[in-house]
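Methods: example folding runs. The two proteins below were folded one after another, and each record is reproduced exactly as written to the output file, sequence line first and structure-token line second.
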Amino acid sequence: MLFFRRKQKAQQALVEEAVSEPFEIPAVVRFERSITHDEVKRVESELRVLRVEKEALGEVLTRIFEAAASGRITSEERDRLVAKYREQLSKLDSTIKHNERIISLYQLEEARSELIKMFQTKFLELNRKIEEIRKALGLEAAPSTEVKLAPAVKPQAPASPKARAEAPAKREAEPVRRRSKADEELEKLKEDLQRELEKLEQMELEV
């Protein structure tokens, strides 16, 4: 019986030791890269040249229409020249769009890396403060709990007229909780993450 109790205590100590270990996020997160820095620089250079070429073709088309309006060329000659340069313009537009997508892909992959770095920095900072407060209070870490990173959003049922009428009164009766420094820091973290996500969404819309 004594041996069993010693064994049970030893197992409990191992569990408590494992639970008290701080959670650590990996120092390196691996993602596949589609475009290298040198490749995107080459594409950006090519894109600048293509845009200048597109502007030049636009000016050529303008000159053609001006020549036709002044009677220097016939309408048939104008149409033949316009068809020729518009075909070149269409190919240029296709290549420009392709290069812009390559640059957008590179920027999105860069933004993903920056988002992970920012999250890691903020997470480690919060974790450090949590450990400091635990030590100051003389508390041990409780058993770990699961946190759903992407909870499903359930549609809310429309409130009844009675509930809508009672809602303002209930809100007025609720005491206003004073915001602590931890609340402010958590709110700032959420705002930082939200800004980064909005940047990503904007970049996706531009692709």
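Second run, written to the same file directly after the first:
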Amino acid sequence: MSQEPTVESLGSHSEPRSALRGAEDERRADLATRITHRFGIKNGQQEIFDLINKKAYIGGILIAGLILFWWVLITEGNDNIALAPSFLFALNFSHVAITVGAFGLLSSAFKSLSREKGQLLPSLISGAMIIVCVFFIFEPLVYGFFTNELAQSTGLWRTGRLMILFSGVTLCSTFLVEAYLLFWLKTFCESEGINIIEHGEAISINDSPVVE
């Protein structure tokens, strides 16, 4: 019965190293194991290549789609950006859209990387960015329905576009980060002489099996 693939500490299969180098090797090996488990890689190196291609391909499609969306519906959306500037820093709609796009992209990236690396600060920053994005997204709706500064239809139009933009950049960032993690795993395996045995039987280092 096969077990989940794991990557053992590199220190047990190499010449003695300093404590600092050994700790770094252990950290990198542990990260490689978590990435392997996250994507359920069981069918060898070719599966890693296929996943990298798939994630990067979809990420590229989303990038092109977001650029087109921005050009058509943000910069050319027939919206007087001088109307109803944001309560935060008096940003106009164009600047708000840039902030939502940038914060959505970074927040998703920080969250995904923090999940694998177990770091606290990126998750805190990601959460704070999400709150700012939510505020900016629904602020035009509040202006449209509860003040006279913006028509209701304009408020709905702005909020709708910001929601689409935020969803798009979040999804795009997720695919790009996953492609990066898989590429890192491929590079790690190649540089450390790790072979992923077919059918999920094991991951070996320098031809020495790790999983019995």
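Comment on the second run: The first helix runs from residue 19 to 39.
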